[in-house]
């Protein structure tokens, strides 16, 4: 999981859910946002493998909170069918 805190390490805020493994992040200075790349434990077996799904979450630096999923469930479902 990915967490954010203030510069002193206080006020920890979870950015990614417990069932997602943090992979990488990209920082966009102009918009002051972080795009977190994660892997979703799709089959809930607590193991992350190549069969699990990639996900992306966006979070504004100035208002830390659980990241907003970039792609909707309906979009992901439609892509799985192809």
Unreliable stretches, pLDDT < 50, 5 or more residues? none
Strands ordered across the widest β-sheet? 3-4-5-6
How would the global form be characterised? Answer: globular
What distance separates the N and C termini? 30 Å
SSE arrangement, N to C: EEEEEEH
Biggest beta sheet summary: 4 strands, antiparallel
How many β-strand stretches? 6
Which radius of gyration do the C-alpha atoms yield?
Answer: 14 Å
Helix proportion: under 10%
Mean pLDDT score: 89
Residue share in β-strands: 35-45%
Global structural class: mainly beta
Count, helices: 1
Quick summary:
The chain is mainly beta and 82 residues long.
Describe this entry's structure for a reader.
It is a single chain. This protein is mainly β. It is 10% helix and 38% strand. It has 1 helix and 6 strands; from the N terminus they run ββββββα. The strands form 2 sheets. It has a 4-stranded antiparallel β-sheet, with no helix packed on it. Strands 1-2 form a two-stranded antiparallel sheet. Strand 5 and strand 6 (68-69) form a beta hairpin. It is globular.
Layout of secondary structure:
Layout: E1 3-4, E2 13-14, E3 20-28, E4 33-40, E5 53-60, E6 68-69, H1 73-80
Antiparallel strand pairs: 1-2, 3-4, 4-5, 5-6
Descriptive labels:
82 residues, mainly beta, four-stranded antiparallel beta sheet, two-stranded antiparallel ribbon, globular
